[in-house]
Amino acid sequence: MMTAARHQPPPDEKELVGNAKAGDREAFGVLVTRHQRRVWLVCRQYVGAEEADAASQEALIKAFTRLDAFDGRAAFSTWVTRIAINTCLDFLRKRRRGGLRVVQADGDDHSPALDIPDERAGPEEQARQRQTIARLREAEEGLSDRQREVFRLRFFAQMNLNEIADSLDVHPGTVKTLLHRAVHRLRRELGDIR
Amino acid sequence: MSRHLNDHELASAAAGIPLEPGRLVHLEGCVSCRRSMKGFLDQVEIRRRAMEEEMPDWDTHLLQVLSGLPRTPATPLAARRRWLSPLLAAAATITLAIGTSMVVHRSGPAPVPTPRPEIAIEEILAQAESLLAEDGIPDFDVLDNITDDDLTALFGAQNS
């Protein structure tokens, strides 16, 4: 039997933000459920797998404390992504100050243990995937910081061009240029050019 | 059939940057161009899937976020700032005004110190010595003249 709740449309994002602003933690929980994957993926690109959980949690908590500043001009996802990026940059600054280890600009810690291929694939396929990941990672190192950042947000955090532009506060044309150069260079490095 | 997409056009297509309509039509109909673009995207996809394997359990992630939330969305400091700033500004102005007036007041002509008379210690000691040298210090005589019998008579009469 279908319950009445199943017929209810999902809560409107604007309404959820309004309720969360008024202190409704449940409403904010729904927002977190919707956006935590994206926030985590963004953080993963900047701080690496080891700190992505902590950075994404901190970013989402910051978003809650700054809800009053959200005026609805940008999409909530863009706004929270921007907070995530700033949080990651803070993480990187702290890491640099602490001198814990060499900062990799691409957010990878280059640990072979983190090269996780698809476990469902056979050994040969897994080896091929590992090789592909290593080659791509190596090729990424040839990109400028900004190219790498845009490339990762586009392909690994799965953001579209306008979302990247809004999150980085740059013109969409700049994103297109950076992304085009990044992909062109990577294809050349990976031997995909005809 | 139109010419194949060049490398720049393929890079744009792979990146999701819109192509000119004519070039897009070619891409849609050309197996070679699509294969070339797909070869790159497949490699990227392998790396992306590897990252997905690192993702946390989302329910746990959500709980950790919710447990870290403050009671209210606005941080106490931020909420306080709204009324604290003008108050602090007013307090600073008053403090500055008082401080300035005190400095101005103090910077006037310094008062001339009045000469403090020296104490004639020698004279005082001499007077004390002469006083102590006299046998008959007033009031001490009264005590000296009271005898034990007088006291007994006095208290004995009161107690009886």
Task: Note the topology.
The complex is a heterodimer of chains A (194) and B (160).
Chain A (H helix, E strand, L loop, with lengths): L3 H4 L5 H9 L3 H23 L1 H17 L10 H23 L24 H18 L4 H11 L5 H8 L3 H18 L5
Chain B lengths: L6 H9 L5 H9 L1 H23 L4 H10 L8 H31 L14 H13 L6 H6 L2 H12 L1
Shape of chain A: globular
Helices of chain B, by number, come to: 8
Q: Any idea what the radius of gyration of chain B is?
A: 53 Å
Number of strands of chain B: 0
In short:
The complex is a heterodimer of chains A (194) and B (160). By secondary structure, chain A is mostly helical. Chain A has helices spanning 4-7, 13-21, 25-47, 49-65, 76-98, 123-140, 145-155, 161-168, 172-189.
Q: What does it look like?
A:
- Chain A contains nine helices and no strands.
- With 194 residues, chain A is an all-alpha fold.
- In chain A, helix 3 packs antiparallel against helix 4 (49-65).
- The radius of gyration of chain A is 19 Å and the shape is globular.
- The termini of chain A are far apart.
- The relative contact order of chain A is 0.10.
- In chain B, 71% of the residues lie in helices and 0% in strands.
- Chain B has 160 residues and is mainly α.
- Chain B starts with 6 loop residues before the first helix and ends with a helix.
List keywords for this structure.
heterodimer; A: 194 residues; mainly alpha; 9 helices; 0% strand; B: 160 residues; 8 helices; 71% helix; elongated
